[in-house]
Specification:
This protein is of the alpha+beta class. Helix content is about 20%, strand content about 15%. About 0% of the residues are buried. The chain binds zinc ion.
Length: about 90
């Protein structure tokens, strides 16, 4: 496998580090992930931390709501509305 400096730069970021001798060297590190996003509309989720540097407790990875941490509140509301309307439509006789 090639060294990190020779690899394609897709998942790697360059960090310029000043050494004690005064030289500036390039360190190659993994890119940090972006914000967690809603699985339906792609909106950035609030109240959710990313655990790229250290593992976090589950309470900080999600919101205490149905599908919290995966789906935003607007998409969840529309999902609930659609399911309730479908249930009503099935119950009402024609
Ligand atoms: Zn959404």
């Amino acid at each position: 496998m090639p060294t990190r400096s020779q690899r394609v730069r897709k998942g790697i970021r360059r960090v310029f580090v000043r050494t004690p001798g005064g030289r500036t060297v390039v360190h190659y590190e993994d890119k940090r992930p972006g914000f967690r996003r809603c699985g339906i509309c792609g909106e950035v989720l609030h109240g959710v931390r990313r655990d790229d540097e250290r593992p976090l407790p589950s309470s900080q990875k999600r919101v205490s709501r149905l599908h919290g941490g995966n789906v935003c509140h607007r998409c969840l509301e529309s999902m609930i509305r659609e399911s309730v309307l479908a249930e009503w439509a099935a119950q009402t006789p024609k």
